[in-house]
Amino acid sequence: MISSVENNMKMWGLLSILALFTATSGVIYRSMYDAVVSDSIMPGVLSQDLMTIALSLTLLWISMRMKRNDSTKQLIGVAILIYLFYGYGIYVIEQLYTIMYFAYMAIFALATYSLISVLMSIGKTPHRHVSIDSRILRVGAFFLLINAVMFYIIWSSQIIPLIQDGEKLEFLFSIYILDLCFIMPAFIICALRALKGSNTASFLVPSLLLSGFMILAPLSLGELLRPVIFDLSIDVGVWRYSWSSRYCSYSLVCSTWPRYAQICRFLK
């Protein structure tokens, strides 16, 4: 699927090592967040660092084992790149000026250019036209579209009052930027192109679904950590939403992945 595998493996390896070091430092030395992160947000930061450690190790393993026809490893790797782009985009935009801030910037930049490299190299080599089960394709594509529309409505309904009142948020405004400017447009473009028969877009649908699962996972874990480590109460609404969304994403990935993995073998 990805033509320039060697170059991407090097970038993914460097990115995974840097993210692993940064996230591990955050877990071991949590005090470095004290000056820049409020107590209510700290559970989410810790859970994201824990999730990043697991995914960085996975990406490092993929970067050492990935081959040109390893479609499953490539699609998982792309999902992790999206997760790192999103997660460290939050840290950079939110100005988490810890001792690791330059590392946050480096990870954000590497994830961004790694995704660009993937998009530039994906499907460059000629391949046979492959027929994909329209039901599987439509379910995945419509789920992406529904998520995009839902978040555009939710975030817009929160932004409009801020515009009317001339108010600025202190924290979490980065989610509006990343979701409305990058993630949701990617969902829409990929879904529409997949529905129109684009093989490249179709192969990215599982990666986008899986990245959604990865991005929401720290939210669920953070809620569980609130009473255990930080002596805070669980936000039941957030917990239920994150788990239900993760379940839908995970179910769609499990149902579509075997078919996509089989189809991707044609992309030699």
Number of domains: 1
Rg over alpha carbons: 19 Å
Class per helix and strand makeup: mainly alpha
Share of β-strand residues: under 5%
Helix tally equals 8
Give the CA-based shape.
globular
How many beta-strand elements? 0
Q: What proportion of the residues is helical, as a percent range? A: over 70%
Uncertain residue segments: 126-131, 238-244, 260-268
Q: SSE order in H/E notation?
A: HHHHHHHH
Mean pLDDT: 82
Ends apart, CA distance between termini: 6 Å
Largest sheet: none
Q: Your description of this structure?
A:
By secondary structure, this protein is mostly helical. It has one domain (5-264). The chain has eight helices and no strands. Helix 3 (71-93) runs antiparallel to helix 6, helix 5 (134-165) runs antiparallel to helix 8 and helix 7 runs antiparallel to helix 8. The N and C termini lie close together (6 Å). Mean pLDDT is 82; it is low at 126-131, 238-244 and 260-268.
